[in-house]
Amino acid sequence: MKEKRILVCEDEDAIRDFVVIHLKRSGYEVTDVSCGEEAIRCWEEGKRFDVAILDIMMPGIDGMQVCKYLREHSKTIGIIMLSAKSQEMDKVGSLMMGADDYVTKPFSPSELVARVDAIYRRVSMVQPEEELTGDIETGPFLVDSKSRTIYKNGVPIELTQVEYHILEFFIRNRGSAIDRQTLIEKIWGNGYYGDDKIIDVNIRRLRMKIEENPSDPLYIRTVWGYGYIWGEEGEQ
After folding, report:
1. What's the CA gap between 211 and 214, in Å, rounded?
2. For the chain, what is the domain count?
3. Apex 141 CA angle, 140 and 145, nearest 5
4. Is the pTM of this model over 0.85?
5. Is the pLDDT of residue 77 over 60?
6. What SS3 state is found at 213?
């Protein structure tokens, strides 16, 4: 059985020990460090992880900087940020920097493990069978299901695993309005504890990557009061 490798970077010993215990009980192989410098050192020494849990606020190299470093070196690693309620802008900032999710302190063990499990499923390419039904083209876009790559005008788009699944889902359901709850259940799984803001931030990131003018999108369009749609303009 493949080891489920996870990095926990948290400077508060009590919180870190709490997280490590419950992740190990859930079958994860855990490497825990107390600062951002150690987290980066682990990667530089050749250790690789499926998921990283990073505390936003740490002395020295903080979680935001570690998130940026990890995302620059891997588009596949799942990244979950730990934040305090007062760090709302930091949450959005970390998602824009490449994090996949965030958990607000204090949190329950079941909440954290559920969020880790959801991200791990994405990273491990465990997905419903219907998502594997061949390539698809629409307008300038090509979804290559085998390599899990999406191209625009023949050029691969640099996407995280979460971004890939969101964009693929839109393209395969082009022309249909999709509400936020459906997106959350499809990408993060049933029982997701977070709010739907994570969808909006990921959409913002995707628009920056695929739209000529992100503020006036042709492809991922907003359906006000409902969700989003891959519009007809994207099919021409």
Report:
1. 5
2. 2
3. 155
4. no
5. yes
6. coil
